[in-house]
Design goal:
2 copies of one chain form a homodimer.
Chain A: E1 5-8, H1 12-23, E2 28-32, H2 35-41, E3 47-50, H3 56-61, E4 69-72, H4 78-90, E5 95-99, H5 103-111, E6 116-118, H6 120-133, E7 137-144, E8 147-153, H7 163-166, H8 168-171, E9 175-183, E10 186-191, E11 204-210, H9 211-219
Parallel strand pairs in A: 1-2, 1-4, 2-3, 4-5, 5-6
Antiparallel strand pairs in A: 7-8, 8-11, 9-10, 9-11
Chain lengths: ~220, ~220
Protein backbone atom coordinates (compact mmCIF):
# COMPACT_ATOMS: atom_id res chain seq x y z
CA UNK A 1 0.00 0.00 0.00
CA UNK A 2 2.74 2.45 0.88
CA UNK A 3 5.87 0.26 0.68
CA UNK A 4 8.46 0.28 3.40
CA UNK A 5 8.49 3.13 5.88
CA UNK A 6 11.71 4.25 7.54
CA UNK A 7 11.34 5.89 10.94
CA UNK A 8 14.47 7.75 12.01
CA UNK A 9 14.79 8.89 15.61
CA UNK A 10 13.23 6.55 18.15
CA UNK A 11 12.09 8.82 20.96
CA UNK A 12 8.50 8.60 22.19
CA UNK A 13 7.04 9.89 18.96
CA UNK A 14 9.17 7.80 16.59
CA UNK A 15 8.78 4.65 18.67
CA UNK A 16 5.01 4.97 18.84
CA UNK A 17 4.81 5.63 15.11
CA UNK A 18 7.03 2.63 14.23
CA UNK A 19 5.05 0.30 16.48
CA UNK A 20 1.64 1.50 15.21
CA UNK A 21 2.65 1.03 11.58
CA UNK A 22 4.21 -2.38 12.25
CA UNK A 23 1.05 -3.51 14.07
CA UNK A 24 -0.90 -2.64 10.92
CA UNK A 25 1.39 -4.82 8.82
CA UNK A 26 3.68 -2.16 7.33
CA UNK A 27 7.35 -3.27 6.92
CA UNK A 28 9.08 -0.68 9.10
CA UNK A 29 12.79 0.12 9.15
CA UNK A 30 13.58 1.76 12.53
CA UNK A 31 16.80 3.77 12.82
CA UNK A 32 18.48 5.46 15.76
CA UNK A 33 22.04 6.15 16.77
CA UNK A 34 21.51 4.84 20.29
CA UNK A 35 21.73 1.07 20.49
CA UNK A 36 19.35 0.66 23.45
CA UNK A 37 16.54 2.42 21.57
CA UNK A 38 17.08 0.29 18.49
CA UNK A 39 17.21 -2.89 20.55
CA UNK A 40 13.92 -2.14 22.28
CA UNK A 41 12.17 -2.24 18.89
CA UNK A 42 13.89 -5.32 17.49
CA UNK A 43 10.97 -7.61 18.32
CA UNK A 44 8.27 -5.22 17.06
CA UNK A 45 9.37 -4.03 13.61
CA UNK A 46 10.70 -5.67 10.44
CA UNK A 47 14.20 -4.20 10.50
CA UNK A 48 16.24 -2.13 12.94
CA UNK A 49 19.51 -0.31 12.33
CA UNK A 50 21.79 1.48 14.74
CA UNK A 51 23.41 4.26 12.73
CA UNK A 52 23.94 8.00 12.63
CA UNK A 53 21.45 9.27 10.04
CA UNK A 54 23.60 12.33 9.35
CA UNK A 55 26.33 9.98 8.05
CA UNK A 56 25.93 9.86 4.27
CA UNK A 57 27.82 6.60 3.83
CA UNK A 58 25.86 4.83 6.57
CA UNK A 59 22.55 5.86 5.01
CA UNK A 60 23.76 4.79 1.58
CA UNK A 61 24.82 1.38 2.91
CA UNK A 62 21.35 1.03 4.46
CA UNK A 63 19.88 1.58 0.95
CA UNK A 64 17.61 4.23 2.37
CA UNK A 65 16.66 5.35 -1.15
CA UNK A 66 14.56 2.18 -1.51
CA UNK A 67 11.94 3.10 1.10
CA UNK A 68 8.66 4.61 0.00
CA UNK A 69 8.29 6.99 2.91
CA UNK A 70 10.82 8.25 5.44
CA UNK A 71 9.77 9.94 8.66
CA UNK A 72 12.46 11.99 10.37
CA UNK A 73 11.20 11.93 13.97
CA UNK A 74 14.35 13.40 15.53
CA UNK A 75 13.18 15.90 18.11
CA UNK A 76 16.08 16.88 20.30
CA UNK A 77 18.79 17.78 17.79
CA UNK A 78 17.76 20.36 15.20
CA UNK A 79 21.02 20.15 13.29
CA UNK A 80 20.83 16.34 12.98
CA UNK A 81 17.21 16.63 11.86
CA UNK A 82 18.06 19.09 9.07
CA UNK A 83 21.07 17.10 7.83
CA UNK A 84 19.07 13.88 7.86
CA UNK A 85 16.19 15.35 5.86
CA UNK A 86 18.62 16.81 3.32
CA UNK A 87 20.24 13.38 2.90
CA UNK A 88 16.90 11.57 2.59
CA UNK A 89 15.97 13.98 -0.17
CA UNK A 90 19.35 13.53 -1.85
CA UNK A 91 18.96 9.72 -1.79
CA UNK A 92 15.70 10.09 -3.70
CA UNK A 93 13.13 9.22 -1.02
CA UNK A 94 10.02 10.67 -2.62
CA UNK A 95 8.01 11.30 0.53
CA UNK A 96 9.93 12.72 3.47
CA UNK A 97 7.87 13.64 6.54
CA UNK A 98 9.81 15.62 9.11
CA UNK A 99 9.18 16.63 12.68
CA UNK A 100 9.87 20.26 13.53
CA UNK A 101 10.27 21.91 16.92
CA UNK A 102 9.73 25.52 15.81
CA UNK A 103 8.45 27.56 12.87
CA UNK A 104 11.99 28.35 11.73
CA UNK A 105 12.94 24.68 11.92
CA UNK A 106 9.84 23.83 9.85
CA UNK A 107 10.77 26.35 7.14
CA UNK A 108 14.30 25.02 6.90
CA UNK A 109 13.09 21.41 6.73
CA UNK A 110 10.89 22.31 3.76
CA UNK A 111 13.81 24.07 2.07
CA UNK A 112 16.06 21.03 2.34
CA UNK A 113 13.50 18.60 0.96
CA UNK A 114 10.77 17.66 3.46
CA UNK A 115 7.48 17.05 1.65
CA UNK A 116 5.51 17.40 4.91
CA UNK A 117 6.37 18.92 8.27
CA UNK A 118 4.61 18.21 11.55
CA UNK A 119 5.06 19.75 15.00
CA UNK A 120 3.46 17.42 17.58
CA UNK A 121 4.32 19.47 20.68
CA UNK A 122 2.85 22.65 19.19
CA UNK A 123 -0.32 20.99 17.87
CA UNK A 124 -1.19 19.37 21.18
CA UNK A 125 -0.20 22.48 23.20
CA UNK A 126 -2.54 24.63 21.08
CA UNK A 127 -5.37 22.14 21.57
CA UNK A 128 -4.82 22.06 25.33
CA UNK A 129 -4.67 25.87 25.45
CA UNK A 130 -8.03 26.15 23.65
CA UNK A 131 -9.49 23.65 26.07
CA UNK A 132 -8.29 25.58 29.11
CA UNK A 133 -9.51 28.89 27.73
CA UNK A 134 -13.07 27.73 27.15
CA UNK A 135 -14.73 26.09 30.15
CA UNK A 136 -16.85 23.14 29.08
CA UNK A 137 -14.63 22.46 26.09
CA UNK A 138 -13.19 18.93 26.20
CA UNK A 139 -11.29 19.04 22.93
CA UNK A 140 -11.03 21.25 19.88
CA UNK A 141 -9.84 20.32 16.40
CA UNK A 142 -9.47 23.34 14.11
CA UNK A 143 -10.86 22.77 10.61
CA UNK A 144 -10.57 26.27 9.19
CA UNK A 145 -9.84 29.66 10.77
CA UNK A 146 -12.61 30.26 13.32
CA UNK A 147 -14.33 26.98 12.48
CA UNK A 148 -13.73 23.80 14.44
CA UNK A 149 -14.89 20.45 15.66
CA UNK A 150 -15.46 20.84 19.38
CA UNK A 151 -16.11 18.26 22.03
CA UNK A 152 -18.00 19.96 24.83
CA UNK A 153 -19.69 19.06 28.07
CA UNK A 154 -23.42 19.40 27.51
CA UNK A 155 -24.37 22.80 28.99
CA UNK A 156 -26.60 22.47 32.06
CA UNK A 157 -29.48 24.28 30.33
CA UNK A 158 -29.75 21.58 27.64
CA UNK A 159 -30.26 18.62 30.01
CA UNK A 160 -33.41 16.63 29.31
CA UNK A 161 -34.19 18.45 26.07
CA UNK A 162 -34.16 16.77 22.65
CA UNK A 163 -32.12 17.94 19.68
CA UNK A 164 -35.35 18.78 17.85
CA UNK A 165 -36.44 20.90 20.79
CA UNK A 166 -33.07 22.69 21.01
CA UNK A 167 -32.97 23.29 17.25
CA UNK A 168 -29.21 23.92 17.50
CA UNK A 169 -28.67 23.95 13.79
CA UNK A 170 -30.96 26.93 13.28
CA UNK A 171 -30.68 28.66 16.66
CA UNK A 172 -26.91 28.40 17.01
CA UNK A 173 -25.67 27.41 13.54
CA UNK A 174 -24.11 24.32 15.11
CA UNK A 175 -24.20 20.68 14.05
CA UNK A 176 -24.17 17.98 16.70
CA UNK A 177 -22.22 15.15 15.11
CA UNK A 178 -22.24 12.71 17.99
CA UNK A 179 -23.29 12.33 21.59
CA UNK A 180 -21.03 10.42 23.98
CA UNK A 181 -22.37 9.16 27.26
CA UNK A 182 -21.40 6.64 29.92
CA UNK A 183 -24.12 4.11 30.66
CA UNK A 184 -23.48 1.44 33.27
CA UNK A 185 -19.77 2.25 33.26
CA UNK A 186 -19.47 1.78 29.48
CA UNK A 187 -18.95 4.63 27.03
CA UNK A 188 -21.62 4.68 24.38
CA UNK A 189 -21.52 6.83 21.26
CA UNK A 190 -24.60 7.97 19.38
CA UNK A 191 -23.24 8.92 15.96
CA UNK A 192 -25.37 11.23 13.82
CA UNK A 193 -28.02 11.60 16.55
CA UNK A 194 -31.61 12.08 15.42
CA UNK A 195 -33.95 14.88 16.51
CA UNK A 196 -35.53 12.67 19.14
CA UNK A 197 -32.19 12.22 20.99
CA UNK A 198 -32.51 13.69 24.48
CA UNK A 199 -29.42 15.18 26.08
CA UNK A 200 -28.44 13.85 29.50
CA UNK A 201 -26.60 15.81 32.16
CA UNK A 202 -23.10 14.39 31.77
CA UNK A 203 -23.17 13.92 27.98
CA UNK A 204 -20.25 14.99 25.84
CA UNK A 205 -21.40 16.60 22.59
CA UNK A 206 -19.27 16.51 19.44
CA UNK A 207 -20.15 19.69 17.62
CA UNK A 208 -19.16 21.49 14.46
CA UNK A 209 -19.45 25.22 13.99
CA UNK A 210 -17.76 28.58 14.19
CA UNK A 211 -16.20 29.79 17.44
CA UNK A 212 -18.85 32.40 18.13
CA UNK A 213 -21.64 29.82 17.75
CA UNK A 214 -20.00 27.44 20.17
CA UNK A 215 -19.53 30.20 22.75
CA UNK A 216 -23.18 31.19 22.45
CA UNK A 217 -24.30 27.57 22.79
CA UNK A 218 -22.17 26.95 25.89
CA UNK A 219 -23.52 30.12 27.47
CA UNK A 220 -27.13 29.31 26.53
CA UNK A 221 -27.09 32.39 24.29
CA UNK B 1 -12.23 32.60 33.65
CA UNK B 2 -9.90 29.88 34.84
CA UNK B 3 -7.65 31.76 37.25
CA UNK B 4 -3.89 31.43 37.14
CA UNK B 5 -2.38 28.52 35.29
CA UNK B 6 0.97 27.08 36.32
CA UNK B 7 2.96 25.37 33.59
CA UNK B 8 5.76 23.22 34.97
CA UNK B 9 8.44 21.92 32.60
CA UNK B 10 9.32 24.30 29.79
CA UNK B 11 10.30 22.05 26.92
CA UNK B 12 8.65 22.54 23.51
CA UNK B 13 5.23 21.50 24.73
CA UNK B 14 5.25 23.47 27.99
CA UNK B 15 6.70 26.58 26.36
CA UNK B 16 4.13 26.58 23.56
CA UNK B 17 1.31 26.07 26.06
CA UNK B 18 2.52 28.86 28.35
CA UNK B 19 2.89 31.31 25.44
CA UNK B 20 -0.51 30.45 23.90
CA UNK B 21 -2.30 30.93 27.21
CA UNK B 22 -0.45 34.17 27.96
CA UNK B 23 -1.31 35.52 24.50
CA UNK B 24 -4.97 34.92 25.32
CA UNK B 25 -4.65 36.95 28.52
CA UNK B 26 -4.31 34.16 31.09
CA UNK B 27 -1.91 34.95 33.99
CA UNK B 28 0.63 32.17 33.57
CA UNK B 29 3.21 31.04 36.10
CA UNK B 30 6.00 29.24 34.20
CA UNK B 31 8.31 26.95 36.17
CA UNK B 32 11.45 25.03 35.21
CA UNK B 33 14.61 23.99 37.00
CA UNK B 34 16.82 25.25 34.17
CA UNK B 35 17.43 28.98 34.31
CA UNK B 36 17.84 29.48 30.55
CA UNK B 37 14.42 28.02 29.86
CA UNK B 38 12.79 30.20 32.49
CA UNK B 39 14.61 33.31 31.24
CA UNK B 40 13.44 32.78 27.67
CA UNK B 41 9.82 33.13 28.85
CA UNK B 42 10.31 36.09 31.17
CA UNK B 43 9.02 38.61 28.62
CA UNK B 44 6.03 36.51 27.52
CA UNK B 45 4.30 35.34 30.70
CA UNK B 46 3.12 36.96 33.93
CA UNK B 47 5.51 35.19 36.30
CA UNK B 48 8.50 32.86 35.94
CA UNK B 49 10.23 30.79 38.59
CA UNK B 50 13.37 28.74 38.43
CA UNK B 51 12.89 25.88 40.88
CA UNK B 52 12.88 22.12 41.18
CA UNK B 53 9.20 21.16 41.21
CA UNK B 54 9.96 17.95 43.10
CA UNK B 55 11.15 20.08 46.04
CA UNK B 56 8.23 20.36 48.44
CA UNK B 57 9.53 23.47 50.21
CA UNK B 58 10.21 25.30 46.96
CA UNK B 59 6.68 24.60 45.71
CA UNK B 60 5.22 25.67 49.02
CA UNK B 61 7.19 28.95 48.95
CA UNK B 62 5.86 29.56 45.43
CA UNK B 63 2.30 29.25 46.85
CA UNK B 64 1.50 26.76 44.15
CA UNK B 65 -1.74 25.82 45.93
CA UNK B 66 -3.21 29.16 44.85
CA UNK B 67 -3.30 28.41 41.12
CA UNK B 68 -6.52 27.24 39.53
CA UNK B 69 -4.93 24.79 37.11
CA UNK B 70 -1.47 23.24 37.04
CA UNK B 71 -0.10 21.54 33.96
CA UNK B 72 2.86 19.23 34.56
CA UNK B 73 4.49 19.26 31.12
CA UNK B 74 7.70 17.49 32.17
CA UNK B 75 8.46 15.00 29.41
CA UNK B 76 11.98 13.71 29.88
CA UNK B 77 12.04 12.65 33.53
CA UNK B 78 9.29 10.25 34.55
CA UNK B 79 10.25 10.26 38.20
CA UNK B 80 10.20 14.07 38.43
CA UNK B 81 6.84 14.13 36.67
CA UNK B 82 5.28 11.69 39.14
CA UNK B 83 6.70 13.46 42.22
CA UNK B 84 5.58 16.85 40.92
CA UNK B 85 2.02 15.69 40.26
CA UNK B 86 1.81 14.12 43.71
CA UNK B 87 2.96 17.41 45.28
CA UNK B 88 0.53 19.51 43.22
CA UNK B 89 -2.27 17.27 44.43
CA UNK B 90 -1.02 17.49 48.02
CA UNK B 91 -0.93 21.30 47.84
CA UNK B 92 -4.61 21.27 46.89
CA UNK B 93 -4.47 22.28 43.22
CA UNK B 94 -7.92 21.15 42.11
CA UNK B 95 -7.17 20.61 38.44
CA UNK B 96 -3.85 18.93 37.64
CA UNK B 97 -3.24 18.10 33.99
CA UNK B 98 -0.21 15.87 33.45
CA UNK B 99 1.75 14.81 30.44
CA UNK B 100 2.54 11.10 30.19
CA UNK B 101 5.06 9.31 28.00
CA UNK B 102 3.60 5.80 28.27
CA UNK B 103 0.47 3.98 29.38
CA UNK B 104 2.10 2.92 32.65
CA UNK B 105 3.20 6.48 33.33
CA UNK B 106 -0.36 7.68 32.64
CA UNK B 107 -1.82 5.17 35.11
CA UNK B 108 0.61 6.20 37.82
CA UNK B 109 -0.06 9.90 37.24
CA UNK B 110 -3.78 9.28 37.75
CA UNK B 111 -3.05 7.32 40.93
CA UNK B 112 -1.03 10.16 42.45
CA UNK B 113 -3.60 12.83 41.71
CA UNK B 114 -3.70 13.93 38.06
CA UNK B 115 -7.22 14.89 37.06
CA UNK B 116 -6.36 14.60 33.35
CA UNK B 117 -3.52 12.91 31.51
CA UNK B 118 -2.42 13.65 27.97
CA UNK B 119 0.20 11.98 25.80
CA UNK B 120 1.11 14.33 22.92
CA UNK B 121 3.73 12.11 21.25
CA UNK B 122 1.37 9.15 21.18
CA UNK B 123 -1.65 11.10 19.93
CA UNK B 124 0.20 12.66 17.03
CA UNK B 125 2.05 9.42 16.20
CA UNK B 126 -1.28 7.56 15.98
CA UNK B 127 -2.71 10.26 13.72
CA UNK B 128 0.32 10.15 11.44
CA UNK B 129 0.19 6.34 11.35
CA UNK B 130 -3.48 6.43 10.24
CA UNK B 131 -2.59 8.93 7.58
CA UNK B 132 0.24 6.80 6.21
CA UNK B 133 -1.88 3.67 6.23
CA UNK B 134 -4.68 5.16 4.17
CA UNK B 135 -3.61 6.85 0.94
CA UNK B 136 -5.61 9.99 0.29
CA UNK B 137 -6.08 10.61 4.00
CA UNK B 138 -4.71 13.99 5.06
CA UNK B 139 -5.67 13.83 8.71
CA UNK B 140 -7.81 11.72 10.99
CA UNK B 141 -9.35 12.66 14.32
CA UNK B 142 -10.95 9.72 16.10
CA UNK B 143 -14.33 10.52 17.62
CA UNK B 144 -15.41 7.06 18.71
CA UNK B 145 -14.06 3.56 18.00
CA UNK B 146 -14.28 3.09 14.22
CA UNK B 147 -15.80 6.53 13.70
CA UNK B 148 -13.76 9.60 12.84
CA UNK B 149 -13.44 12.99 11.28
CA UNK B 150 -11.25 12.51 8.23
CA UNK B 151 -9.64 15.05 5.98
CA UNK B 152 -9.13 13.41 2.60
CA UNK B 153 -7.96 14.35 -0.85
CA UNK B 154 -11.03 14.34 -3.10
CA UNK B 155 -10.92 10.97 -4.91
CA UNK B 156 -10.30 11.36 -8.66
CA UNK B 157 -13.69 9.86 -9.50
CA UNK B 158 -15.56 12.66 -7.70
CA UNK B 159 -14.02 15.57 -9.65
CA UNK B 160 -16.55 17.83 -11.31
CA UNK B 161 -19.54 16.19 -9.61
CA UNK B 162 -21.80 17.97 -7.13
CA UNK B 163 -22.55 16.75 -3.62
CA UNK B 164 -26.18 16.23 -4.62
CA UNK B 165 -25.06 14.12 -7.55
CA UNK B 166 -22.67 12.05 -5.40
CA UNK B 167 -25.30 11.57 -2.68
CA UNK B 168 -22.52 10.61 -0.25
CA UNK B 169 -24.76 10.66 2.78
CA UNK B 170 -26.97 7.92 1.43
CA UNK B 171 -24.55 6.06 -0.84
CA UNK B 172 -21.63 6.00 1.57
CA UNK B 173 -23.09 7.00 4.94
CA UNK B 174 -20.65 9.90 5.04
CA UNK B 175 -21.16 13.57 5.85
CA UNK B 176 -19.04 16.16 4.09
CA UNK B 177 -18.57 18.87 6.70
CA UNK B 178 -16.34 21.21 4.72
CA UNK B 179 -14.53 21.56 1.42
CA UNK B 180 -11.08 23.19 1.41
CA UNK B 181 -9.62 24.44 -1.82
CA UNK B 182 -6.86 26.77 -2.96
CA UNK B 183 -8.05 29.48 -5.31
CA UNK B 184 -5.53 32.01 -6.63
CA UNK B 185 -3.01 30.92 -4.00
CA UNK B 186 -5.42 31.50 -1.12
CA UNK B 187 -7.02 28.71 0.90
CA UNK B 188 -10.78 28.95 0.90
CA UNK B 189 -13.06 26.90 3.10
CA UNK B 190 -16.65 26.08 2.24
CA UNK B 191 -18.18 25.13 5.58
CA UNK B 192 -21.37 23.07 5.52
CA UNK B 193 -21.35 22.82 1.71
CA UNK B 194 -24.71 22.68 -0.05
CA UNK B 195 -25.83 20.05 -2.54
CA UNK B 196 -24.90 22.27 -5.48
CA UNK B 197 -21.21 22.41 -4.41
CA UNK B 198 -19.10 20.85 -7.16
CA UNK B 199 -15.92 19.06 -6.16
CA UNK B 200 -12.71 20.19 -7.86
CA UNK B 201 -9.70 18.00 -8.51
CA UNK B 202 -7.40 19.14 -5.73
CA UNK B 203 -10.06 19.75 -3.06
CA UNK B 204 -9.61 18.51 0.47
CA UNK B 205 -12.83 17.12 1.92
CA UNK B 206 -13.54 17.14 5.64
CA UNK B 207 -15.71 14.10 6.20
CA UNK B 208 -17.38 12.33 9.08
CA UNK B 209 -18.22 8.65 9.08
CA UNK B 210 -17.14 5.16 10.02
CA UNK B 211 -13.87 3.72 8.79
CA UNK B 212 -15.46 1.30 6.34
CA UNK B 213 -17.48 4.11 4.73
CA UNK B 214 -14.43 6.28 4.24
CA UNK B 215 -12.49 3.40 2.67
CA UNK B 216 -15.35 2.73 0.25
CA UNK B 217 -15.62 6.40 -0.65
CA UNK B 218 -11.88 6.76 -1.30
CA UNK B 219 -11.96 3.66 -3.48
CA UNK B 220 -15.09 4.78 -5.34
CA UNK B 221 -16.88 1.78 -3.82
Amino acid sequence: MLGDVAVIGLGQFGTQLAVSLAESGVPVLAIDSRMERVESLRASVARVLCLDATDEEALSAARIGDVGVAVCAIGDDVQASILTVALLHQFGVSRVIARAVSELHARILRMVGASEVINPARDIALRLASRLLQPGLVDRVPIAPGYALNEIEAPAWTAGRTLLDLDVRKQFRLSILAVKRVEGGVEKVIANPGGDTAIAQSDILVTLGDDESIRRFLAGR
